[in-house]
Amino acid sequence: MAMMEEIVKKADLLGYRGEKREEYSKQEFELLEERQAREKKQEAELQERREKANRKERLELEKMKLDAEMKLLQAKIEAGIIKNEPEQQREVERRRGQTPETAKLSRWKG
């Protein structure tokens, strides 16, 4: 409402009276509303771009983290610190003297 009062004061200062003042005030108010709508739309678009950039950055960081974890695990596997699950399972079965078929049966029987 304060904006409307300012528009009316400006019309008075410009010397508009009566119908001309109302017409001028109406036009100025419409221009003000349009400008505010444009600014609001631009701000929403800017916020959307920021969120999209942040999402993209988070995904890139997550990918880098997963790549690093994968490389670390691969290095541990290659160094023999840990073994691939299938390889590890076969090693356990070999130590028990089981063949793959009997190992499946013993796993199934639980």
UniProtKB/TrEMBL annotation:
Q: Where is this region: Disordered?
A: 83-110
Q: Where is the composition biased (Basic and acidic residues)?
A: 84-98
The entry's protein name is Uncharacterized protein
Q: Which UniProt keywords apply?
A: Coiled coil
Superkingdom assignment: Eukaryota
Species in which this protein is naturally found: Plakobranchus ocellatus
Annotated coiled-coil segments of the chain: 29-76
